[in-house]
Design goal:
The chain is of the alpha/beta class. It has a single domain, classed as Alpha-Beta Barrel (TIM Barrel). Helices cover 45% and strands 13% of the residues. α4 crosses α5 and α7 runs parallel beside α8.
Length: 286
């Protein structure tokens, strides 16, 4: 099983080649391409997007596959105008997946009320379904699967895995899947294995990280909490998950020179590798 992490934690690499070179040095053989920032030129200039995609695609010579891409976040979808702009950026992210041959585009449910409580509880679901139907033609055209992610927001109804599954089931398309975020489930105190089984029919990719249940802290798995991670890896083996064990964390790295930072980065990778090994061991034991 391949182990990955988001390219966003290797921002200091400055160029795609340096980012992927560093990730390979740490030990990763997969990556989650960070395209969250809609202020970047890639979302507004065709030539910038072409250069970005060409540079990242060529970085594969480091032996790293780009398994997934994190789409626009946040999209400021509280008003019709900003929502329309966000949807344009989502379509551009799907195009970027096609240009870089990335199979999965990860995205979040719509948040028409921002971070606050939802005045009309069903509106976020309605808008999320509309967004997915808007993206579906491009996903079908380019062979990209849009993967809806569970969230850590207690005030929002489309956060927990049961609601995520409900939305994806309604789309009923092979190009609609789920990205399971373990840290977001932990905020709700949910059992990781149970949530993986719930997502199983649609599960395509992962964001793996931990916390102590008090907030979305993106801690290294098995660091700073007492969660039974073996239940999670057993579940991945049981449901036949064949994808990447993709982390979304880097741990608490102090302000140190890069050569010293490497030690901490390798510790994060080692935690991911341990989980991946547990999945493989559980799979063999079935």
């Amino acid at each position: 099983m391949k182990v990955g992490n988001t390219t966003g934690y290797f921002w200091y690499g400055e160029t795609a080649d340096r980012v992927y070179g560093r990730m390979a040095e740490v030990g990763y053989d997969a990556a989650d391409q960070d395209m969250a920032d809609i202020k970047k030129a890639i979302y507004h200039d065709d030539d910038a997007l072409k250069r970005f995609c060409a540079e990242n695609k060529s970085a594969a010579h480091h032996g790293i596959i780009i398994n997934q891409l994190h789409g626009p976040w946040p999209t400021y979808d509280t008003e019709p105008e900003s929502r329309a702009e966000g949807w344009r950026c989502f379509r551009r992210a799907v195009l970027a997946c096609h240009m870089m041959e990335i199979p999965y585009m990860v995205f979040h449910p719509q948040m028409p009320y921002g971070w606050g409580a939802e005045e009309e509880p069903e509106l976020p679901k309605k808008l999320t379904l509309e967004l997915m139907m808007d993206l579906l033609p491009d996903c079908e055209k380019y062979g990209v699967t849009m993967c809806l992610e569970n969230m850590p927001f207690r005030k929002h109804r489309i956060s927990t895995m049961d609601r995520i599954v409900e939305v994806v089931r309604e789309i009923s398309s092979p190009y609609a899947g789920i990205c399971y975020d373990t840290g977001h489930s932990l905020v709700f105190g949910h059992d990781l294995g149970e949530m993986a089984r719930l997502a199983a029919p649609y599960l395509k990719c992962l964001h793996v990280h931990g916390n102590d249940g008090t907030g979305d802290k993106h801690k290294v798995p098995m660091e700073g909490d007492n969660i039974h991670w073996k239940g999670f890896t057993d579940a991945l083996a049981e449901i036949g998950y064949q994808g990447v064990l993709s982390l979304e964390c880097m741990g608490d790295i102090p302000d140190v020179p890069l050569e010293e930072r490497l030690v901490y980065e390798k510790q994060t990778y080692a935690a991911g590798r341990k989980l991946a090994d547990q999945v493989e061991a559980a799979r063999k034991a079935l």
